[in-house]
């Protein structure tokens, strides 16, 4: 696709560092979520500011002719060959993990204080946070996700694709997901095949070698178990017990390693339980959300939508993209779907397809009434007609909220 759709939420996070020589800009995220394209967007913005092509060093280590660059010396030689004068340079290195022990070379250029450095990578070593300990200087991480629903609609418009009503598009988005590459295809079969190829790439290139997984079948079983239970509380013990119940032996540490690999590869996003009264994170069970819902539908033949976890997952990813940190709120035996934090602001969020019956309505509102502080409360719904304010609780249509690119 020649058209570059500008992902403003991520550009806003990194613009202030464009000319910063002391800080290495690290862009991470699940494969094919748009990291390389984000680098291209930054380069375009630099050119619009008047930066000359000769002052932009753009190295893609997964593309010809740089695919055979694997050592520190080879990378240094390549970078130096592109530095033809003493002007300030912007260095972009895509898929930096292809170079073994690349960190000292990146650090050495940073220390010269003449370069603004941007790097991306896709393997679980780079994504797991190990990079932070290896790069001894300052760095910031910009973590990307696939397209949220607002971005999905806007990118379809950029590509000249037909955009139906937002509710029709929302139903489609749930199943096709937000990997930008999916929008190249029109049939559901091709879209699912594309997502499966992404997952296979992640396993072969990011997980298998780094995690030394010997039993691929068992790994895929655990992966599917967690993917099928996204948005539900899961503990490692519960997974071990499940497999024991069907006469399959797997130990605690193996399950822990598999989950860690899925989290490091950015397939799963863990969400901790937080006790609202004691203000402490609760150990043990937690929920896992998917980087993209298409992962669930690519791994399952059942295409029915379970709206509870689906809507939670969509809101979770949208708010993460907007810069909120999320946890699950516990107050006694009750649960608030999310506590959202941004700067010093807190929000309590519930998510439900509908509250058209009294029992559901009572279940969704009750946790709010148990919380004694005065932070804002939101109930996100699919209902088209809603009473927008109930006892100080804001009822919000989730499709409109996201398609209008709103914040809490």
Characteristic terms for this protein:
408 residues, alpha/beta, 22% strand
H/E order of the elements? HEHEHEHEHHEHHHHEHHEEHHEEEHEEEH
Please identify the structural class as seen in this structure. alpha/beta
Number of separate strands: 14
What is the rounded Rg? 22 Å
Concise synopsis of the structure shown:
This protein is α/β, with parallel strands linked by helices. The protein has 16 helices and 14 strands.
Describe the protein in words.
The protein is an alpha/beta fold and 408 residues long. It has 16 helices and 14 strands. Strand 2, helix 3 (72-81) and strand 3 form a beta-alpha-beta unit. Helix 10 (216-228) crosses helix 12. The mean pLDDT is 92.
Layout of SSEs?
Blueprint: H1 8-14, E1 23-29, H2 35-48, E2 56-60, H3 72-81, E3 89-94, H4 103-111, E4 115-120, H5 124-127, H6 130-134, E5 138-144, H7 149-158, H8 166-176, H9 188-211, H10 216-228, E6 233-234, H11 236-245, H12 252-264, E7 268-275, E8 280-290, H13 294-298, H14 307-321, E9 325-331, E10 334-342, E11 345-352, H15 358-370, E12 377-381, E13 389-390, E14 393-397, H16 398-403
Parallel strand pairs: 1-4, 1-5, 2-3, 3-4, 7-9, 11-12, 12-14
Antiparallel strand pairs: 6-8, 7-8, 9-10, 10-11, 13-14
Helix pairs in contact: 10-12
């Amino acid at each position: 696709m020649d058209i570059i759709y500008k992902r403003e939420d991520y550009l806003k996070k990194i613009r202030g560092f464009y000319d910063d020589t002391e800080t290495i800009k690290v862009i991470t995220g699940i494969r094919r979520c748009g990291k390389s394209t984000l680098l291209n967007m930054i380069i375009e913005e630099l050119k619009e500011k008047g930066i000359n092509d000769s002052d932009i060093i753009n190295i893609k280590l997964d593309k010809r002719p740089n695919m055979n660059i694997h050592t520190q010396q080879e990378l240094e030689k390549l970078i130096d060959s592109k530095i033809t004068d003493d002007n300030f340079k912007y260095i972009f290195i895509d898929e930096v993990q292809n170079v073994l022990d690349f960190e000292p070379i990146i650090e050495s250029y940073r220390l010269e204080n003449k370069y603004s450095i941007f790097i991306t990578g896709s393997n679980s070593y780079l994504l797991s946070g190990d990079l932070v300990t290896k790069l001894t200087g300052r760095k910031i991480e910009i973590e990307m996700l696939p397209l949220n629903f607002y971005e999905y609609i806007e990118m379809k418009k950029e590509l000249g694709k037909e955009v139906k009503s937002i509710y029709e598009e929302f139903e489609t988005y749930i199943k096709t997901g937000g990997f930008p590459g999916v929008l190249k295809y029109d049939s559901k079969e091709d879209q699912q095949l594309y997502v499966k190829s992404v997952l296979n790439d992640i396993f072969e290139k990011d997980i298998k070698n780094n995690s030394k997984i010997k039993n691929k079948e068992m790994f895929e079983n655990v992966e599917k178990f967690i993917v099928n239970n996204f948005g539900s509380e899961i503990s490692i013990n519960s997974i071990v017990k499940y497999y024991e119940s069907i006469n399959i032996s797997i130990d605690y540490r193996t399950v822990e390693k598999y989950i860690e690999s899925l989290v490091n590869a950015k397939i799963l996003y863990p969400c901790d339980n937080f006790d609202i009264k004691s203000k402490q994170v609760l150990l043990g069970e937690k929920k896992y959300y998917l980087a993209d819902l298409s992962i669930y539908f690519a791994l399952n033949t059942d295409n029915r939508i379970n709206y509870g976890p689906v809507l939670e997952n969509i809101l979770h990813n949208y708010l993460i993209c907007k810069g909120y940190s999320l946890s699950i709120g516990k107050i006694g035996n009750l649960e608030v779907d999310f506590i959202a934090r941004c700067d010093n602001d807190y929000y309590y969020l519930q998510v439900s397809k509908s509250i058209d019956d009294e029992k559901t309505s009572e279940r969704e509102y009750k946790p709010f009434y148990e919380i004694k502080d005065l932070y804002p409360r939101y109930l996100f719904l699919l209902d088209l007609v809603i009473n927008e304010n109930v006892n100080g609780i804001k009822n919000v249509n989730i499709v409109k909220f996201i398609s209008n690119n709103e914040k809490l």
